[in-house]
Design goal:
It contains ten helices and no strands. α1 runs parallel beside α9. The protein is globular, with a radius of gyration of 16 Å.
Length: about 240
């Protein structure tokens, strides 16, 4: 399949936008590939591969800035990794799930914009709840081909478990690990078939994430980062409803 210049520009811009808020961008890549009629078997693997590079670089940037808290990551990741592997091995029509997810994202956007005007006073993590959330996010991440950060971010903020930049750091590494597990699940089924242009897309993703993660970590205030994340979530919810 041959893509025009618009396809590559959109991938590059998506990597910048998502990495600025600590995301890998899989929901955006899937939307773009759907617009350009990429086959489903190529879409999921391609999005997860791009997630590895974009989220990995984004995590490093926020980690270097001192925003990563291992205590925030660990309860979510314990069950999400094996569940992401399992989800990637299951073939299921995700249409109903996508609609529910899109509604949840819209609710999360409204809630985040409301609390963005107030100082964030974080409170201790609820470990049992975090384990359940991690397992659910991991499963659907592997099944659909996303990293799960698009849901983890609003959960952390709505429950006041992390600040906006701590959320970006945790979401980035969460996405990286779940994407790796999802790719392993696809490989175990023998369907790890990204688009032929994947190496060029990786280069665009790396370039975009270097720009976006720097902007998000250094240039944006917490309030601006919250509004930008809300925009990203709005785009993701539109993609889920439209496709």
């Amino acid at each position: 399949m041959e893509f025009g210049i618009l396809f590559f520009v959109l991938i590059f811009v998506t990597a910048i936008l998502y990495s600025s808020v600590g995301h890998g961008g899989a929901s955006g890549y899937l939307a773009i590939m759907a617009l350009f009629a990429v086959s489903p078997e190529n879409m999921r693997a391609s999005a997860l591969i791009l997630n590895l590079f974009v989220a990995g670089i984004s995590f490093y940037s926020y980690y270097k800035g001192g925003f990563f808290k291992l205590r925030l990551l660990f309860p979510f990741i314990i069950l999400s990794i094996p569940m992401s592997f399992l989800g990637a091995r299951i073939q299921i029509n995700p249409s109903t799930y996508k609609i529910i997810l899109g509604i949840f994202l819209l609710i999360a956007i409204a809630r985040m914009l409301f609390v963005a005007k107030k100082p964030i006073n974080t409170k201790p993590l609820n470990i049992p709840l975090a384990l359940v959330i991690g397992a659910i996010l991991g499963f659907f991440s592997g099944m659909i081909g996303i990293g799960g950060g698009i849901i983890l971010s609003p959960v952390l903020l709505i429950l006041n478990w992390a600040t906006i930049k701590e959320t970006a750091a945790v979401s980035a590494i969460f996405i990286f690990l779940n994407s790796a597990a999802g790719l392993s699940g696809l490989a175990s089924r023998g369907i790890l078939n990204p688009v032929p242009e994947i190496y060029f897309l990786i280069a665009l993703g790396i370039a975009g994430s270097l720009i976006g993660s720097h902007v998000g970590r250094v240039k944006l205030t917490s309030a601006k980062l919250t509004y930008l994340l809300s925009f990203v979530l709005l785009f993701a919810s539109f993609k889920l409803f439209y496709f």
